[in-house]
Amino acid sequence: MQEKTDALKEYVEANQLTFYRLAFSYTKNSDAALDVVQEAVLKAIDKIGSLKEIAYLKTWFYRILVNEGLSYLRDNKRLTIVEDFPAEQATPDNCESIAESIDMYNAVQALEPKIKTVIILRYFEDMKLEEIARVTNVNLNTVKSRLYKGLELLKILIGEE
Hints:
Layout: H1 2-27, H2 30-46, H3 57-75, H4 95-110, H5 113-124, H6 129-136, H7 140-158
C-alpha cells in the first residue's frame, strides 16, 4: 500500500500542471479547476487501495480526474464562467496563430462533454486510444466513434472542409 501511495504522490507532483490544464478545460475557471484537481487527488488518496497495479496509475487517476470534471459540469451547468484565453504577446508574426489557437480552443469547448473528453485526452494529453478507453470506461470502438465525430464537428465549427 505504501508503494502505491508513494507512486501516486510522485505522479501528482510531476503532472500537476497537466491535471490543472485538463480540469480547466472543463471548468473554464482557474479556481474551479484547482478545486477539481484537489477533489481528484483527495479521491485518489482515499481510494488508492482500489488500484490493482501501479502500471495503471495514469489511467486510473485520469479516470478520477475526468469524472470530477464531468461532475463539475453537471453540478454547475447553469453557471458558465469563461476567463480570458491565455494568449502570448501579440505581434504581427504570431497574430494569425493566436487567432487559430483561440478558434480551436473555442471549438473544442463547444463540444459535448463525452466527445470533448476524448479530443482533449487524445490531442492535448497525447494519450493512446486504448488509454482513453480505460480512462473513460468505455470500449475502444466507442472512443474511436467519439473521436471521429469530434473531429468532424471541429471541422464544421472552425470552418474547414
